[in-house]
Specification:
- The chain is mainly alpha-helical.
- It has a domain at 5-43: Histone, subunit A, CATH 1.10.20.
- It has 3 helices and 2 strands; from the N terminus they run αααββ.
- A two-stranded antiparallel ribbon has the order 1-2.
- It is flat and about 55 Å long.
Length: 96
């Protein structure tokens, strides 16, 4: 897949980025190269491959224990709310 300069201008507009002409040229080339690499990766057959937990052989990830570390304090947090119902915040309707 190849991006055009107009495509990159539209992406920059959506991201609210202001790019100069030189930056647009570099961004177009870079994004096109990234998409070409993704297309290459998509063409590979990965059936039967096991996911890796760690990129180095015989290594494991150190994981912390899965335990609750904080207590439920929703009553304290909701004390200043103007309207509540069933422990949920009520907000005014903004869309008709």
């Amino acid at each position: 897949m190849s991006l055009t300069r107009r495509d990159v201008e539209n992406i920059a507009h959506l991201a609210r980025l202001s790019l100069s002409d030189a930056e647009l040229s570099v961004a177009t080339a870079s994004l096109t190269a990234i998409l070409a690499f993704v297309d290459q990766l998509s063409a590979l057959d990965a059936t039967g491959l096991e996911p890796m937990a760690h990129p180095l052989p015989d290594q494991v990830q150190r994981l912390r224990p899965d335990v609750v570390t904080e207590t439920d304090q929703h009553v304290k947090y909701q004390a200043n709310a103007s309207q509540l119902e069933a422990a949920l915040y009520l907000v005014p309707k903004v869309i008709e």
